[in-house]
Design goal:
- The protein is an alpha+beta fold and 109 residues long.
- It is 27% helix and 7% strand.
- The longest helix has 18 residues.
């Protein structure tokens, strides 16, 4: 009760203060938006061209065991993501892969 004497009572919350507080918290949650971040449809072309794919940095004969020096990444992203580099290293080329070829999983054992 705000009307009671004492140091702390005058700034205690009453029913109306609590309603206003809850309203402002809900408004703040609305301003924060969704937890999941998504792109707008208009951003998709830029995203596709900004992403990169793993690319052979040199000619890779069939049977080559892939190491870091065989790989680079370039735009656009039509192949294996650079995030997968550790999963590509150690794989074996199933057939000859030309330098600058965008890498696909079907190229490896």
């Amino acid at each position: 009760d705000k009307k009671l004497s004492g140091n702390d009572h005058y700034h205690a919350m009453d029913k109306e203060d609590l309603k206003l507080f809850c309203k402002k918290v809900k408004h703040a949650e609305l301003l924060l938006g969704q937890e999941k971040i998504t792109s707008l449809p208009s951003e998709e072309p830029a995203r596709k061209n900004a992403r990169r794919s793993l690319v052979a940095s040199c000619d890779l004969p069939a049977g080559t065991k892939i190491n870091y020096n065989h790989l680079t990444w370039k735009r656009p992203a039509h192949g294996i993501s650079p995030r997968e580099i550790n999963n590509v290293i150690g794989k074996t080329a199933l057939f000859d892969i030309n330098a600058d070829s965008v890498l696909k999983w079907k190229m490896f054992n």
